[in-house]
Write a structure and sequence with these properties.
single chain, mainly alpha, 2 domains, 3 strands, elongated, three-stranded antiparallel β-sheet, 7 helices, 7% strand
């Protein structure tokens, strides 16, 4: 997936500043395609050079002027070309720090790994609550044509969060069992 194409797609809804785009990302697609404000501004510059977006300055009273971007006809063509082109692979390559930490977990105390996994569970439960809020916002939106697509995308986020939550809870149970076995083994040896 491409951040420039995500930006082009979001600009099909309405003209936005870089800050507006970041806000839109955070309220809609950040759970499967996050972006930093610096990345958004960098790519907006590239998109403008390619003439896929244009910009204009909107003066504001008491605040700095806003640079607002709009998608061009060429930008719309590029987005449609990208959307109609089959991806080379449907496999998402993910760098998963939590899985890496678990893989290397024997290097730290078991109680520390259990503690980290409990924090992971808490965060995933918060993610599900945030997805609930996004689903509610989508249901109340005026974007009737988009709702079904947005909710289907959101469903994938739910499934991933639910799977990660289940995995973490299983890890905690297994680590607790392993901790008990180690403790019993220590007692037998002494």
């Amino acid at each position: 997936m491409s951040l420039p194409h995500a930006i082009l797609g979001l600009l099909t809804y309405k003209p936005m500043s870089g800050y507006d785009l970041k806000s839109f990302f955070d309220k809609s697609i950040k759970y499967f395609w996050p972006a930093q404000l610096s990345q958004i501004y960098r790519d907006l510059g590239t998109l403008e050079k390619k003439e896929w977006v244009t910009s204009h300055i909107e003066p504001q009273e008491g605040r700095p002027d806003r640079k607002v971007y709009s998608i061009t006809e060429e930008g719309k063509k590029e987005l449609l070309n990208w959307l109609n082109k089959m991806p080379q692979s449907f496999t998402s390559i993910v760098r998963d720090e939590t899985a890496l930490r678990m893989f290397l977990g024997s290097r730290i105390e078991i109680d520390e790994m259990i503690f980290q996994m409990k924090a992971f569970v808490k965060e995933k439960k918060e993610t599900v609550m945030a997805l609930d809020a996004i689903a509610d916002m989508i249901q109340k939106s005026d974007f009737d044509k988009e709702k079904v697509y947005w909710l289907l995308s959101l469903r994938k986020g739910y499934r991933i969060a639910e799977a990660e939550l289940k995995w973490a809870e299983e890890c905690i149970e297994e680590l607790e069992r392993y901790k008990k076995i180690l403790k019993e083994k220590e007692q037998d040896e002494s």
